[in-house]
Design a protein that fits this description.
505 residues, mainly alpha, Serine Threonine Protein Phosphatase 5, Tetratricopeptide repeat, two-stranded antiparallel ribbon, 8 strands, 35% helix, signal
């Protein structure tokens, strides 16, 4: 009989609550004498376990064209701190060959799904921690809704990492990833559901989550856990990926109606320029700006996990990886994001002293010394309102009568990112549908850089041919529609359950 797949490896129900630990304060440890969840508090803490607080996809932006390797920046003998992602950077058949622990995303997202399944199967019978049954029932239903949202979030990343991008013409037959919404511990052969089935699962979970949390509001740490609003923002993203433009527009509009906030860079436009963009000049007193992706920002709706970019991108001295100059050149001279998202680092320690661009979106103090992954590293898995404006622009760009609306949303977003008084409005008369769509994709690249969007955007749009150079002038190439736009299933998962099947190469 086929051994049980690593999807739920070593997960015995009675031991689920004995190993709670977390990076965030809201993930409190469960008392050791709790062998089985019974109260709403127990299930809330069990659901906390489903939130992935660690680094799970450090290769995601390395795969994209927003990153380049500069061999001259190699500053120490042997491997540097970025070389664990070298296989991903060179688009090798297995992206995790240089990662010491292989790719853990497959395992971690399925573990998250398992915890969500446990909650969803049992929360309706949970006892309350207060006498007011109406409040207890509201809490039960809100936790249930939150579990639906988090399960959808995990399935979304799994299908976009390990299956082809959603295409309405082929999604009914293309293999996606396994769906398992059971907590059964019996041996089982896991096979793939279709891409369409996975997206229908994601959509259904998000719709139910929004309904349950909206109808049953409770007080929670709103940026670290899913709410009805952040679940709706996630649904807008899903509809965009599914080419369902009208539904994407409706969801995104509802989100910005409730929270239209955009992070304005007008203030920092008076401070930042090429002349003071040298990272080594910053200290606690002089660092310009605040974390662009901080959970305290009013435009941020949801944050999850520590930064996926430390130390590969944020550590200037001992990493050969740099922000791609081509990305930097995409910004207008008056676009403050050029100076807010990346900083110049003069690498005087390398064999051939050189200048590189270091990731700075989280506004680290002393970026050239950031090496440890932790709460101080900031976030990169973020849902925020700017994405909703870009979803609206892209969805309208797909509609024959949508150019004016698309341009309006682009202007609302872009004006806040330029030096005050310098922004020139985009004009609908300067675009056709195709040129507008390409412009929106470029704007997504600028605004959402290093948040895990770019590789997914390349996959779901044009899947272009790309070329890059690694160490010793080794050249790596992706063909247009290259099968390596789909990552390989981790070998340890295939070894346990080969029925999942390798992705083509």
């Amino acid at each position: 009989m086929m051994k049980k797949c690593n999807l739920y490896r070593d997960m015995l129900f009675c031991g689920l609550l004995l190993c709670f630990s977390a990076c965030e304060k809201y993930l409190e440890e469960m008392p050791q004498n709790k062998l089985k969840p019974s109260t709403t508090d127990d299930y809330e803490q069990l659901l906390n376990k489903a939130y992935l607080t660690e680094q799970v996809m450090p290769y995601l932006d390395i795969l994209s064209d927003d990153v380049e390797l500069i061999e001259a920046n190699h500053a120490m003998p042997g491997a540097d701190l970025g070389d664990t992602q070298l296989a991903a950077y060179m688009w090798r058949d297995r992206h995790d060959l240089t990662m010491p622990n292989e790719d853990i995303a497959f395992e971690k997202f399925y573990e998250s799904i398992f915890y969500c399944n446990v909650v969803l199967e049992n929360i309706r019978d949970a006892k309350g921690v207060e006498l007011n049954e109406e409040n207890v029932q509201r809490t039960r239903k809100n936790i249930e809704g939150e579990a639906h949202a988090l399960r959808a979030y995990s399935y979304f990343y799994l299908v976009n990492l390990y299956a082809k991008a959603y295409d309405p013409a082929t999604c009914e037959t293309e293999p996606g990833i396994p769906i398992n919404n059971s907590t059964s511990a019996e041996d089982k052969i896991y096979t793939r559901n279709t891409v369409l089935e996975v997206y229908e699962q994601i959509e259904g979970d998000l719709i139910e989550s929004i309904r349950l949390m909206k109808e049953n509001p409770i007080v929670k740490n709103e940026k670290l856990k899913f709410t009805a609003l952040s679940a709706k923002a996630m649904l807008a993203r899903v509809y965009l990926y599914m080419h369902r433009w009208d539904e994407a527009i409706q969801c995104a509009k509802e989100v910005i109606t409730e929270n239209p906030s955009i992070f304005s860079l007008h203030e920092y436009g008076e401070i930042l320029s090429m002349e003071n963009n040298e990272v080594m000049f910053w200290d606690d007193e002089t660092i310009p700006g605040v974390d662009y992706l901080a959970k305290d920002n009013s435009n941020v709706l949801f944050v999850n996990g520590v930064s996926e970019l430390v130390p590969t991108m944020a550590y200037g001295r001992f990493s050969t990886f740099s922000v791609n100059r081509d990305l930097a050149d995409q910004f207008d001279p008056n676009d403050v994001r050029r100076y807010y998202f990346m900083s110049t680092y003069a690498n005087i320690y390398s064999i051939q002293p050189s200048t590189k661009l270091t990731y700075a979106k989280n506004r680290y103090v002393w970026l050239n010394q950031v090496i440890a992954i932790g709460a101080g590293s900031g976030y990169t898995r973020v849902i925020r309102t700017e994405e909703m404006y870009l979803i609206l622009a892209e969805a309208y760009a797909h509609k024959t009568d949508g150019i004016v609306s698309a341009i309006s949303y682009l202007n609302q977003l872009r004006e806040t990112k330029f030096r005050n008084g310098t922004y020139e409005l985009l004009k609908a008369s300067d675009f056709n549908l195709q040129s507008l769509l390409e412009y929106v994709w470029e704007e997504r690249r600028r605004e959402l850089c290093f948040e895990g969007h770019r590789w997914f955007d390349l996959r779901r749009t044009t899947r272009p041919a790309m070329e890059r150079v690694g160490y010793e002038n080794e050249v790596a190439r992706l063909r247009m529609d290259d099968p390596r736009y789909v990552l390989q299933i981790p070998q340890r998962e295939l070894s346990v359950n080969p029925s999942i099947g390798s992705n083509p190469r």
